[in-house]
Design brief:
Blueprint: E1 3-12, E2 20-29, E3 32-37, E4 46-49, E5 53-57, E6 59-64, H1 82-87, H2 96-112, E7 115-122, H3 128-141, E8 144-150, H4 165-178, E9 186-191, H5 200-213, E10 216-221, H6 226-232, E11 240-244, H7 250-258, E12 262-265, H8 267-273, H9 280-286, E13 290-293, H10 306-326, H11 343-350, H12 352-357, E14 375-379, H13 390-396, E15 403-408, E16 411-415, E17 418-419, H14 424-442
Parallel strand pairs: 1-4, 1-5, 6-7, 7-8, 8-9, 9-10, 10-11, 12-13
Antiparallel strand pairs: 1-2, 2-3, 5-14, 14-15, 15-16, 16-17
Helix pairs in contact: 2-3, 2-14, 4-5, 6-7, 10-11, 11-13
The structure holds zinc ion.
């Protein structure tokens, strides 16, 4: 069994009993953490000198569409519906091989930034081959993954072999059958079409199917009252992960909190959109909803959660302050419940809550014996670690460039700031080729949005 010994790190374990440890060692045996403590020794272990670095659990991105990775920058200035009209038609021009490359590229970019678990919400499953290719891309990157198989309707270019949800059930059974039940590196989830009053019968069939298959679910929760609808039909459960939830009502959040539910927020994408309320974070947090994080749109934002964490922390403080000023609490002062979030909360959203949203909190997301060795080292040797809570250093004083080492299930995926086993030159060429083929097919050009009006309905 391979052994790796991290020596002398500042350990932020995210484990309640272990807490934070100064100059501690962590011994990894095989895929798991064997010991955490001082002066550990293992004669046959590869030793990583982690002095001056912060060792923490890898982060969990609980909602990203990795197929967009080759198109970074395409919709940077999109407004209103322009993101959809300029991005979604490109899906039709991705071959299964292209989807493999795009997904692999997105997973590598995420790993490089310290994300070790990924919910890939794949809206590009145009055929069984596409599903297999995306799963292969995730596997080859070595990221711990949940493959989210989307059930939404037809594509704008009509090149999909798959019809809407009903016709995809058989393929989902096939994919589920191809994955080992005890494979904790690759699991299947089902992305529901829509949870709206008009679509609720169909959603109910999808939910029943997902539960029969033993799959967790997610969906774009873009309207208020959707969680109430699920509750009224007796369908709401902790196996459902709503994404965004910017328009959720207090009742929605109350019900979600009551079932021990999670909400995954993508702070950069949601604020970028310009039309979304961000008050659901504080309202959900106060009602016991466990907040998790994601990036959502790698065509716009870099993959990796550190910028999401920082924006969320600052944004919530801004909202708290605005609320206090509206209530004439000026100057603002600390009082029970205000400010809403600590830096520790934010780190928990990205680690423990993220893994819990993916259903693996008992084995992933903490540095403690028995847990999966999904670990990252943040380099603090040059400018030092910020004083106070080290979670504050992670949230406000670090960047993806500081991620020195990344380990997933005991395997090193990044070391000395370089990706392990990745031909980065080939990857760059491959992702550019995917982009160029898609643009050629769709008649688009690099660096220019062409569709500035709504010409495609996802319900078509
Ligand atoms: Zn999304």
């Amino acid at each position: 069994m391979s052994k790796v010994l991290f020596k002398g790190a500042f350990v932020m374990s995210c484990n309640d009993e272990i807490g934070d440890l100064e100059a501690a060692d962590v011994l990894v045996e095989g895929a798991r953490i064997a010991q955490v403590g001082a002066d550990l020794a293992a004669a046959d272990a590869e030793v990583i000198d982690a002095a001056g670095m912060l060792l923490m659990p890898g982060m969990a991105d609980t909602h990203s569409h990795l197929w967009e990775a080759p198109f970074k920058g395409r919709v940077t200035e999109a407004w209103g519906w322009e993101y959809f009209t300029n991005m979604h038609p490109l899906v039709s021009w991705l071959s299964a091989e292209d989807l493999y490359t795009a997904t692999y590229a997105g997973a590598v970019e995420s790993l490089a930034a310290g994300v070790t678990s990924m919910f890939d919400y794949c809206t590009a499953v145009m055929s069984p081959e596409h599903a297999d290719a995306a799963i292969a891309g995730l596997r080859d990157a070595g990221i711990r993954a949940v493959f989210g198989y989307d059930l939404r309707g037809a594509d704008p270019g009509r090149r999909w072999q798959h019809g809407p949800s009903g016709e995809r059930f058989a393929d989902l059974e096939r994919v589920k059958g191809s994955l080992a039940d005890d494979d904790d590196m690759m699991r299947l989830a089902i992305c529901l079409s829509e949870v709206t009053p008009e679509n609720l019968d169909r959603a109910e069939r999808e939910i029943a199917f997902a539960r029969e298959l033993g799959c967790r679910m997610s969906w774009h929760n873009n309207k208020g009252g959707e969680i109430v609808l699920l509750h009224e039909r007796g369908l709401l459960g902790p196996d459902m992960l709503p994404a965004h939830g910017n328009y959720t009502t207090d009742e929605d959040l109350e019900l979600l909190g009551a079932v021990g539910g999670h909400l995954t927020s993508q702070p950069e994408a949601e604020t970028y959109a310009g039309r979304r309320s961000m008050t659901m974070i504080g309202r959900g947090h106060r009602r016991g909803v466990r907040i998790a994080l994601g990036v959502d749109v790698p065509a716009i934002m870099n993959l990796g959660l550190l910028p999401q964490m920082r924006l969320l922390y600052l944004l919530q403080r801004y909202i708290d302050g605005m609320h206090e000023r509206l209530e004439a609490q000026v100057p603002v002062a600390r009082r029970p419940g205000v400010p809403t979030l600590t830096v520790r909360d934010i780190v928990r959203f990205a680690t423990v809550n993220g893994q819990s949203a993916l259903g693996v909190e008992d084995t992933v997301g903490q540095i403690a014996p028995g847990f999966q060795a999904d670990l990252i080292l943040m380099d603090t040797r040059t400018f030092g670690r910020a004083e106070g809570d080290p979670a504050g250093h992670v949230v406000l004083n670090s960047s993806a460039g500081d991620v020195d080492t990344v380990m997933v299930a005991g395997k090193l995926r990044k070391r000395d700031r370089r990706m392990v086993g990745v031909d980065t030159g080939k990857l760059l060429a491959d992702r550019e080729a995917v982009r160029d083929r898609a643009y050629a097919g769709a008649g688009e050009t690099i660096g220019r949005m062409t569709r500035t009006h709504w010409e495609w309905s996802p319900q078509a």
